[in-house]
Write a structure and sequence with these properties.
The protein is mainly alpha-helical. It has one domain: Growth Hormone, Chain: A, CATH 1.20.1250. It contains 16 helices and no strands. Helix 6 runs antiparallel to helix 15. The longest helix has 50 residues. The radius of gyration is 24 Å and the shape is globular. The chain starts with a helix and ends in a 5-residue tail after the last helix. The relative contact order is 0.15.
């Protein structure tokens, strides 16, 4: 700068014009840098909020069959307890996802959800009989359903570069991994409830630093029905796939403990391989994996079949790890592919709410089917059911238009 001035000092007009131009460029660069830093900060806040949201959910979700077995000996009742959370989530996600689009705001629903989850997940600490556990799970389902669609839509709308959204959303997988690790480290059912509540409190505090993003209000009547009809093959294939998956997740922890002698921390290790694979692949989708969102979704649905073929053949707990890593990969493909396809072509919070509620519907049906099959036959028979229904899901997914 000094050299520039001295070289142009004799010609004052030239010096002044150049300096003005230089100052303009400096200000412009500073503004661009400031904008980039602000976006980077927002992305990190969304990543952190997403992380603690799913850490709080996963620390209980994976081990809920084991927790439920502490209040009842009936496999069927265990299935109902697991399903009660998802049943409440179905109604909550559809209703509040639509409300978020109608009001054109996300942050209010994210914060309310965090507060509700901190309270309801903490209430599990006092649920020492089947009735109280049912009530706690229903409350947790409603609270988590308030914020899940809004959080996905917020992550999408806060990024102008949509390819980077996958890296932000990938922190839901990292959160699941952290929750599972925390459960294994704590290794105490009662303490797990308090840790879960703590995760949600931290998530809420982080969300208070997020800027409110006002979106276009989607007030057209009948929107939910139109979104479902427009994407019926996507939602149906997702439903069938996840019914199969949810039926297996209901009995897998119990099977690993009762038949294969796994400890709680060993079950955590098995599930960590799932979430770690999902996290890695979601990040790769932002830069390395180049295919359409519909193709990603179809790959995620079809490849899940091989997961349950493998799990039906294992003879020791550690053998489940590569197949859980594979299912983490398939989840990354179908979750990113399905949600991005929906958000690009439909009202965002409404469509992601239906996506999430479809998963919740499957998580109601799957555990009940698992309980019936396991009661009538054995745990491996649940795997055979999952294989059959996921093949059907893949056939349906082939009808989705790009």
């Amino acid at each position: 700068m000094v050299l520039f001035v001295s070289n142009n000092f004799q010609n004052k007009n030239t010096w002044f014009n150049s300096f003005e131009e230089y100052t303009y460029l400096e200000i412009r660069q500073s503004c661009i840098l400031g904008t980039l830093m602000q976006k980077f900060q927002i992305n990190n806040l969304v990543r952190s909020s997403t992380f603690f949201q799913h850490a709080g959910i996963s620390i209980l979700f994976v081990f809920m069959p084991i927790i439920a077995s502490g209040v009842t000996d009936s496999v069927f009742e265990i299935g109902l307890i697991v399903a009660s959370f998802s049943f409440a989530q179905i109604l909550s996600e559809i209703y509040f996802g639509r409300r978020s689009d109608k009001q054109g705001t996300r942050l209010k629903f994210i914060r309310i959800g965090f507060i509700g989850c901190a309270a309801t997940f903490g209430l599990h600490y006092f649920a020492d009989d089947i009735t109280l556990l049912f009530l706690a799970r229903i409350g947790a389902g409603i609270s988590s359903g308030i914020m899940i669609p809004a959080m996905i839509a917020y992550a999408y709308e806060s990024n102008h570069e949509k390819r980077k959204v996958a890296t932000v959303i990938s922190f839901h997988a990292l959160g699941w991994m952290a929750g599972i690790i925390a459960a294994g480290v704590v290794n105490d059912i009662k303490t797990i409830f308090l840790v879960s509540s703590g995760f949600f409190i931290i998530g809420f505090l982080i969300s208070t630093r997020l800027p409110d993003i006002i979106s276009k209000k989607e007030i057209e009547p009948g929107t939910t029905k139109k979104v479902i009809l427009k994407n019926k093959f996507l939602f149906l294939s997702l439903l069938l796939r996840h019914i199969g998956a949810a039926s297996v997740w209901t009995i897998l922890p119990i099977m690993l403990m009762e038949e294969l002698g796994a400890e709680l921390y060993q079950i955590s290790i098995v599930y960590i391989s799932n979430t770690l694979a999902a996290f890695i692949l979601m990040n790769l989708m932002a830069t390395k994996i180049k295919m359409s969102n519909v193709t990603k979704f179809k790959v995620g649905i079809g490849a899940t079949t091989f997961v349950f073929i493998g799990l039906s053949l294992i003879s020791d707990w550690w053998m489940a790890m590569p197949f859980m890593a594979l299912v983490g990969g398939t989840w990354a493909f179908l979750f990113i592919g399905g949600n991005f396809h929906l958000m690009e072509n439909n009202p965002r919070s409404t469509s992601t709410g239906i996506f999430s509620s479809t998963l919740s519907i499957a998580t109601v049906i799957g555990p009940v089917i698992a309980g019936v099959i396991a009661f009538a036959f054995d745990y491996v028979s649940v795997m055979y059911f999952a294989i059959a229904i996921i093949v059907c899901a893949f056939v349906v997914s082939l009808k989705i238009r790009t």
